[in-house]
Amino acid sequence: MSKIAYVNGRYVLQRDAVVHIDDRGYQFADGVYEVCEVFRGGLIDEKRHFERLAYSLAELQIAAPLRPEALAAVVREVMARNRVQNGYIYVQVTRGVAPRDHVFPQKSVRPSLVVTARQVDPEKSMETAQGYQCHHHAGPALEAGRYQVDFFAAQRPRAPVSAGAGRL
Description:
Blueprint: E1 4-7, E2 10-13, H1 24-28, E3 31-39, E4 42-43, H2 46-59, H3 68-81, E5 87-94, E6 112-119, H4 122-128, E7 133-135, H5 140-143, E8 148-150
Antiparallel strand pairs: 1-2, 1-6, 3-4, 3-5, 5-6, 7-8
């Protein structure tokens, strides 16, 4: 099955997905990304992800590319078109295409939006890599009986544990 991406209003084959060379995300890393975990066909902590994306965009003064409900629909459509049951949805928003200049564009530019998906086999991943963990989250995800699989826990450095750790 071919992977499908959402790029600036269109669903395209991922191999055909392109961003403009003058996109500020490409030129200056002028953008934000959010990685949404998918487990058993559901988004984990969707509200938290979308709130964090909105906060980050506001802090960088980048306009939201879509209304929250429209973005949620796009994310679900990318999940469905890629048949992702367990994996990740990547949401990337950049300031958009503008002439290459080191200052923010004077006129308002339309932000760019790219949404892609990645299927992960949690059983295979846990068998083949050491240290992967499954983290339980408090709140709606846990109450719904779902949990987040942290496939990258083994790659993060761990702080040394001392007898006094956690005490103030």
